Amino acid sequence: MPALNDVLAALDALWPPERAEQWDAVGTVCGDPDAEVTRVLFAVDPVQEVADEAVDLGADLLITHHPLYLRGTTTVAASTFKGRVVHTLIKHDIALHVAHTNADTADPGVSDALAGALDLRIVGPLVPDATDPEGRRGLGRICELDHPETLREFAERAAARLPATAQGVRAAGDPDRTVRRVAVSGGSGDSLFDAVRAAGVDAFLTADLRHHPSSEAREHSDLALLDAAHWATEWPWTEQAAAQLDEISDRHDWGLRTHVSRIVTDPWTAHAAAPPPPARLPDLVSVPTRLPWSPTLNAAPADQIRLLDVQALDVRLSQLAHKRKTLPEHAEIETLNADHTQLRDLLIAAQTEESDTAREQTKAEQDVEQVRQRAARDQKRLDSGAVTSPKDLENLQHEIASLAKRQGDLEDVVLEVMERRESVQERVAELTERVESLQSKIADATARRDAAAEGIDAEIATVTKEREVIAGTIPADLLTLYDKLREQQGGIGAARLYQRSCDGCRQELAITELNEVRSAAPDTVVRCENCRRILVRTPESGL
Ligand SMILES: [Zn+2]
Ligand SMILES: [Zn+2]
């Protein structure tokens, strides 16, 4: 688990504090730099209800878009509502960090998330940051619609896509006018009219549009205006920011659990619409106090169930790969090879000894032959009668006798060498037989191993093909998430929700989590709070 300091360094890299406006108050409000961080909650407003949610969640870090103390303070007494928030957080070891105007102008920033929520194609920043050579950072975004809509359609879509609030989306302009190019800016936007006009857009979607700037903008040109709740235009950023921190956590293997607050902290809670003329926008009838499960991913329930089939095949594939790697023949061949090496060394030593002994025998036989020839020569001289001097005769007879003794000794040597050589030859024969027998055992085990591997390979090919066919019917984004999780989570990326427990980590779901899963739409891709795997609902889920 990372220390708060590590997480803060990562956050500062995403939203450098020095890029905040001069008047802003961003950064860490409270928190111990050395404390460990496991759970992180993202929210727009650091209000008491959100602080309580952080406590309930067991969060260690709360990251909000709006500052708690924008203008400084001289007291954090719990008798003030902000002081109460500080007390709640510190009492439960929860750090508070603010990314405000530094997140507005970041790439990606608050308006990118807003444009993303509305499916808009981003062209560039509305007020570019002069210090960004790439021209991507800055306040607001200029966007294009893939398919032009009427102002009415665009406003209705914005109201449906942004989190529901009492206000909904107000619009100014002819409801039937065409909207192709729009400027968007999360949060208060009525100081940006000059830039909006310069951008030549058809409409401007933002929040907190006051009467006079709006009225003047409408008199100035035919620019259509859309005014949403401040909170609703900034809330999409919390999901984007959580995803950014998730990505960093994955990269560093931090194992952070990020959460996005779904408490509606828009201060407006009711809306009394005037009787609507037909061309007007639809009214909001009810405002939930909590957003429904806000998915990052949707997939048809049938696709989710099929993902379990893919998971089963992937498990089979890893079992087969394991089986192939741990075939008993592998160990058998290894042992046989070791024995073979040892015996072959002994055989080579014996063969060397045998050839040495053969040379020794030849040499001894030559010695015998030399002595025999000398003795024969002497005998011939003696027999010829040429030697007559008694002294010479005695010497010759003496030499013949001593040569005879010498030949006898040398013949004993030959016999001894021959005996040794015979025993070495026996050893060579025995070792040769053993080496050959081992070689045939190795050949046999190798053949058995290859046959077993071939069988497994054939099964792997069949299962791989089957997996390809089923995976091909699953939406790409769901499959990508699954593959990523499978890699991170020891081969299991998707698990059944069975009898209220996650089949991946075997943890029973907490009642709050269970309620969230119950209220999630069937096509919402739900994740296990504990192991982050995709949780697939089935009739046996016990919901
Ligand atoms: Zn704001
Ligand atoms: Zn789990």
TrEMBL record:
The CT398-like coiled coil hairpin domain extends over 310-490
Q: Which residues bind a divalent metal cation?
A: H65, H66, D104, H230, E234
Please indicate if the UniProt record lists Metal-binding as a keyword: yes
Annotated keywords: Coiled coil, Metal-binding
Q: Can you name a GO cellular component term?
A: cytoplasm
Which residue range or ranges hold the C4-type zinc ribbon domain?
501-535
Positions in coiled-coil regions? 333-448
GO MF terms here are: metal ion binding
List, alphabetically, the NCBIfam families matched: YbgI_SA1388
Subunit comment = Homohexamer.
Which family would the database say this protein is a member of?
Answer: Belongs to the GTP cyclohydrolase I type 2/NIF3 family.
The molecule here is called GTP cyclohydrolase 1 type 2 homolog
Q: Which organism is it from?
A: Streptomyces violaceusniger
